[in-house]
Amino acid sequence: MADPRFFNRAGPLTLEALAVLSGARLLDRDQEGRLYRDVAPLETAGPEDVSFLENRKYIEAFVHSRAGAAFIDESAADRAPPGMALLVSREPYKAYALAAQAFYPAIQLVPHRAPSAIIDASAEVPEDCEIAPNVVIARGVRLGRRCRIGANTVIGAGVEIGDDCLIGPNVTLSHCLIGSRVVLHPGVRIGQDGFGFAPDPKAPVKVPQLGRVLVGDDVDIGANTTIDRGSGHDTIIGAGSMIDNLVQIGHNVVLGRCCILAGQVGISGSTKLDDFVMVGGQGGLAGHLHIGAGARIAAKSGLMRDVPAGETVCGSPAVPLTEFMRQTAVLQRLARSKKQR
Q: Which of 61, 168, 235, 261 is the most exposed place for a label (fewest CB within 10 A)?
């Protein structure tokens, strides 16, 4: 069970309700009236909990689980322990996520303005927003309906934010336009100067950064991530993109729709990622590259060339995955042969 000091649980929910909201198929419809009170991992779940099996690596945990129900792929049904209700889905993890959202819905907004918040008279802040202590909202800011702004956050002049956004504590926003249903976790920095300068024998000459950051709808940006504003063109974060903690996105970078960036990724200026690109943790991308739709960049890769749509690359410098595997195999053979001498 999730710690009730931090999480509010809803429910109980019937198997029928879980099947409907997740899109899964209940294998035994005679069980649709059974009630469940929580979600839990296979190893710790009990008879009133719902779990899931996505990765066959955990099949033994599934076989020995005490969970009352589980979301699974149908191919695993014959390994289920006796008495476990089965909710069949082609995407068990996604189905489980929808069930978990039902058990743990988002905390309800409480419209409120803390007395210590500083809100410029020219700012548009709807009455149904929740403004925490020590928030600063500068001139010309426009907030959408039902936004929640965390403590000590600073929203700079002219920034616009769409409806139903969740802005965590200690966030700073400037020179940016934010879409609706965007989540910014604590410490996010958006719109600061890009890293732009002209070389000079005496000292680098700072280039004014005159662009903006445009963040699409339904974007989630992790804690302490930084997104620089454009130097002339805008920096763009496409709708539905998911960005992990401690990511650095340089000026003029363009992310397409639904890109996924894992922790500590760094993207240099003017690089463009098309839709549904995935970058693993600590991946580093040089500037002025073009990454095609659906491409995947493995963790710790150092990318210095364009990547065609759909290709998977790995290594530093990054190469296509099949080439990387061949290189690794050759190195292993060389190492073994040297030991045998």
A: 61
